[in-house]
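Quiz preparation item.
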């Protein structure tokens, strides 16, 4: 009897009989369900050093969202348990000595992995001091010696002091000085014959790092910015000082920068973004006029258009690129007229990109455009990133200070969600600086882009 049952089963599933019914006809064959492939949980880096008060980011590369993170020592390395997106931002608290902390990252599939973090004490950086040379000509202009001002073509010293958490000087520590804004350089040798825009020195037995700076000759009066950074921890301090034009009589009248540009990424496309211009000297208020309104717009305060008013010396206005189609280089002349009728000019160049337009991607791919924006990185500069594909809502983050963007969504006729994120810088960066931008969608897909600062 058992043999007959087996034979009957074989014939029903296509085994041995002259007539073989299909499984769909008999519903007697088992249904084979393909296995579910779960992406492994991967985070980067797996080990890192973190300094007290200095943010660091751990990135979730793959896994099943949403994610959670747990810390073995919440007093030293606090975390937010629920991870928004695919980036974990860590800000350690201050410690007296190195502390080892273990982070555990867990995804929705129950997978977990760990990150070993060594939390180190961040050195205390005192305020930076800029001291003019004793023989400064600025005294003849009515500026007392010892104030934070030097004349064009003169030298000065910049110094800062590093101390440990218990206020002891830290010697033999590398400190990098950078020109953030202004026409000056650092002397690289004792004779002050070789100059550069960045220099790294070591602290002396008193924890002090000192460099020599020289302002460019013949430059107009303007505010300059300098930065000192502890190389090991990334902790930094900024300072400002004024470079005065060494002339008398009619006040100097200038605009900085005198020439700026934004370069697009794709062929026949101009980049979108903005550049801030600062007006010095002359007689306020100033009227600024753009020679073309087809591709740019001016902004000062709450006013935007082809003509704007700048109320005082040292104030700024912005020129915005709308990111339109273009070819080659398009120059817009900015005419600045002060209250007495004196006129100076600046220019704003829009340069078409050189990269061929890409083939249309899969609608589900996460796309960020442009992948590499190139702008003059001044306070208030804006880069507009277009985000498409993936699953909204999106999260945008950078590794530098910026104003968190408002992500505005639209839905074109093809049904694909498109979002625009405006990344606005809240400080200036030196040319050559690369700002990393990370975009994550609701399903933890990530896409990287960059902002490269140009002269």
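Solution:
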């Amino acid at each position: 009897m058992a043999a007959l049952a087996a034979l009957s089963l074989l014939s029903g599933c296509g085994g041995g009989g002259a007539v073989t019914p299909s499984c769909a006809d008999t519903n007697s064959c088992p249904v084979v369900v393909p296995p579910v492939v779960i992406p492994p949980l991967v985070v980067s880096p797996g080990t890192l050093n973190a300094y007290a008060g200095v943010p660091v980011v751990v990135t979730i590369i793959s896994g099943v969202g949403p994610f959670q993170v747990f810390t073995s020592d919440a007093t030293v390395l606090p975390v937010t348990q629920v991870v928004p997106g695919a980036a974990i931002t860590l800000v350690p608290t201050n410690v007296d000595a190195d502390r080892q902390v273990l982070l555990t990252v867990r995804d929705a599939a129950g997978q977990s992995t760990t990150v070993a973090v060594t939390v180190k004490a961040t050195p205390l950086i005192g305020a930076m001091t800029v001291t003019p040379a004793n023989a400064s000509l600025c005294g003849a202009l009515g500026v007392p010696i010892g104030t934070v001002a030097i004349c064009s073509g003169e030298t000065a010293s910049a110094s800062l002091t590093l101390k440990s958490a218990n206020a002891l000087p830290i010697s033999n520590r590398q400190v990098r000085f950078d020109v953030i804004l202004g026409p000056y350089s650092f002397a690289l040798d004792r004779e002050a014959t070789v100059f550069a825009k960045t220099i790294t020195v070591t602290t002396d037995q008193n924890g002090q790092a000192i460099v020599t700076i020289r302002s460019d000759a013949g430059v107009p009066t303007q505010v300059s910015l300098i930065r000192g950074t502890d190389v090991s921890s990334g902790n930094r301090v900024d300072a400002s000082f004024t470079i005065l034009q060494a002339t008398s009589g009619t006040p100097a009248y200038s605009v900085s920068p005198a020439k700026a540009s934004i370069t697009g990424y794709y062929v026949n496309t101009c980049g979108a973004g903005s550049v801030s211009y600062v007006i010095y000297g002359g007689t306020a208020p100033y009227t600024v006029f753009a020679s073309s309104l087809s591709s740019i717009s001016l902004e000062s305060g709450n006013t935007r258009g082809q003509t704007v008013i700048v109320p005082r010396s040292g104030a700024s206005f912005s020129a915005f690129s709308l990111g339109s189609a273009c070819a080659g280089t398009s120059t817009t002349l900015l005419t600045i007229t002060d209250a007495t009728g004196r006129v100076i000019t600046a220019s704003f160049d829009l340069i078409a990109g050189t990269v061929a337009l890409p083939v249309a991607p899969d609608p589900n791919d996460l796309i960020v455009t442009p992948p590499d924006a190139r702008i003059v990185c001044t306070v208030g500069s804006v880069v507009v990133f277009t985000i498409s594909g993936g699953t909204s809502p999106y999260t945008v983050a950078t590794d530098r200070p910026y104003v968190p963007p408002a992500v505005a969504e639209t839905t074109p006729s093809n049904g694909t969600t498109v979002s625009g994120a405006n990344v606005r810088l809240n400080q200036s960066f030196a040319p050559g600086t690369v700002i990393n931008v990370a975009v994550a969608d609701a399903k933890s897909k990530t896409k990287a882009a960059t902002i490269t600062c140009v002269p």
